[in-house]
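Predict structure. Chain length: 182.
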Amino acid sequence: MFRWKFLVSLFCNTFGALVFCFMVKLVPSYSETFVSTLRSKEVMARVALITRPVDYLDETKYLPPGQTIFFNGNIGENSFRISKIIDRADSFLPLIKGEIAPLPKGCLVSLNYSFFPGASFFLGFWAIVSFGLTVLFLSVVQDWKLALICFLVGLGNYGFAWAHFKRKVKESQSLFHELMKL
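Prediction complete.
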């Protein structure tokens, strides 16, 4: 009986610590802020020129050849949420959240590149599973080799996601800067 209470307590504490860690932003993200000499309305107009609005219900919406749309997403008055248009699924594609703040002689552009919520959930889920298995193998089974394997698999998954996310951020960032001519 004592052992089960201990395991439940250990699981709850571990889960709480992992939730706290994900709230502290252990999910990969990248931010940049720069000043543009363009007015905020001009920047938003340029974003609108290269962005197609998202329609989740229309699966037949294809781009005609030669169209200059490279991103899809939602555009607000002084903010936007866009991502690069892709032909096939990509779990590491960054979501670009931008905010434009007007200045006397231009505007301040703040961009935040992050995982889509589904990819963040995937990364968090497997981090929790691999950490839980590590704790299980250390405490119940008492096999440090299996615990080490689970820990290394979880660490490898996280490192793989981080490396590919950084690569995709560089691709999206260079495309965005090139098209916006900022």
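Summary: Residues 33 and 83 are 18 Å apart (CA to CA).
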